[in-house]
Amino acid sequence: MKRFAIGSDIGGSHISCALVDMFEGHIMADSHTEKDIDNKADAENILNGWAEALQETISKVGADNVAGVGFAMPGPFAYDKGIAMFDASVAKFEKLYQVDVAKELALRLGLDVPFRFMNDASAFAVGEAWLGEASKEDKSVSVTLGTGFGSAFIEDGAPVVEAEGVPPMGCVWHLPFKDGIADDYFSTRWYIARWEEVSGEKVNGVKPVADHAKTEEKAQAIFTEFGTNLGTFLGPWLKSFGADKLVIGGNVTGAYNLFGPAFEAVLKQQGVNTKIVLSGLKEDAAIIGSARMIDPEFFEKVKPVLPKM
Q1: Whole-prediction pTM
Q2: Tens of pLDDT, residues 148-182
Q3: Which residues, given as ranges, of the chain have pLDDT below 70?
Q4: Per residue, what are the HEC states of the chain?
Q5: Domains defined for the chain, CATH in brackets
């Protein structure tokens, strides 16, 4: 296998990509590229934007030294086929609906190498299991707390989507919780809505609420509520899966000191022994995890679960 693979993290408004040294297991210095993308643009503009970012990273070593390109991609997406399934219900990338992204990017880049795709939360978890906080664990769960609630269950380095103790689809965002689903309660928008409910103030993220928590009990109570809810919801899954470690990533981790104590207290009450750590790789975890798919041996392991994500 060639030494370098490209890992790409497709966000709602940008693409981040970098070269991963597959032999030594690290991101190549100075190979990161990030480009803003208008998710409401037509397919041509979105694909061209992604291709431009990838081309800039490829230029660091030359196309002849690239083994393949991996993508951490939000859903809905046909990960095994490389075909976008975004529609009006997700309010982003709708113009890519049923577009063969793998084929279109290969044409634009002039590359005859594998283009492989994985759910973005799963890619984050794979990155943590390969080179991050969960690299020494048999079983781990990774979650991302941000605009949405990402999650993945990992055993022996690969995502698990069908097994005893694992929820349907191998993730938890869609599962019922209180008056809605988990994604309603463990994302940035919950903080925004909850703070407006208790204070009447409209904010655009978690940080303003965290700033209020320095001096205001009603803001502190919101973080305690979030941590308690998260522990109540996640604890049974950590226990049923037998997770050795839980890795937490995403922007909301910046407030872990505020919600973490309540979260850990509830887990302890439930008898959950899973070790809790914050991601050190952060955004790079998804890049590393997506590049991991270019390893032929690993891809054979993960290939059967891709259609089920």
Answers
A1: 0.95
A2: 999 999 999 999 999 989 998 999 999 999 999 99
A3: none
A4: CCCEEEEEEECCCEEEEEEEECCCCEECCCCCEEEECCCCCCHHHHHHHHHHHHHHHHCCCCHHHEEEEEEEECCCEECCCCEECCCCCCCCCHHHCCCEHHHHHHHHHCCCCCEEEEEHHHHHHHHHHHHCCCCCCCEEEEEEECCCEEEEEEECCEECCCCCCCCHHHCCCCCEECCEEHHHHCCHHHHHHHHHHHHCCCCCCCHHHHHHHCCCHHHHHHHHHHHHHHHHHHHHHHHHHCCCEEEEECHHHHHHHHHHHHHHHHHHHCCCCCEEEECCCCCHHHHHHHHHCCCHHHHHHHHHHHHHC
A5: 4-123+284-308 (3.30.420.40), 135-278 (3.30.420.40)
